[in-house]
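Fold this sequence, please.
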Amino acid sequence: MELTVKEALALPPRKKIVLNHNRELQQVGQAVGLLSRFLGILASDFQQLPIGEKSWKTMNKASKEHAFDQFKRVFHYEDDGKGIIKRGIVQRIENFWKNARNHLFHKVNDEELTFEENLKRKPAGIEANHWKKFFEYRLNEDTKEKYKNNVANRSKQLYTHTGGSKTMARKRHEEELRQGRPIGRGEGWTMSHKKKNGSYMNEDVRLVRIEEYQMEIVKLKAEVAELKAESAELKTAAAEEKAKRQRMEAEGKAKMQSMGNFLRYTIQQQGGSLSLEIAADLDSLRSAPTSSHAR
């Protein structure tokens, strides 16, 4: 049974929805759909994430952390230790926030009305000052040009996948469960851009996929070459370290023997003879291990 966002928010404090991840730390499983709806609603709360900010970069850090805390109140995931999953969630909130602002602007803005008249059409729950800043930003000529270019770029997209509302990561995970074997990202991409009869969505997609395979091969070759170079450097460094250690051991042993010989010679020159105790000490000095051996 799939929960609604309202039901998820009503869960007891200690009960959370578990998020599963694949090898690339992408969300997979049934909870992905609920997560998307939850983040969409969270990002549309312009009291928590003010609409008047020029960009996500200028958004107050405390507001971003609060949004992530809201996510953690409902969902649980195994921490990867590097913050990769957290950055991914925050980035998704950012995308939803941008989309929500864009949608609201086109829904409310009436080009036949004046700036002041459009300001009066402010939706409930948004501060008047934030709404004014948002409209000033959207009606700026530079902003208009940027959005115009974005629309033009999206219209050139030829590689629509066939997974519907499912992400490619989720689709790939389902195929892995169905086939009982790992499926790479490249194969998953190909599956998501083919029709049911096995043909590509269009010829451009097929050609692009071939080019991407070639680029992946080049990238893998470069990574292998880099690993080999690093391995060679480590071997060289290890050999140098070993030679240095052996040299220090030899020098240390030679110094010990020299001191022993000098002491023996000095005592004998003074007409004395070595006591059995001193002789034993000198013999042990000759065979004493160096500090590196002791370790």
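The chain has two domains: 5-157, 203-294. The mean pLDDT is 79.
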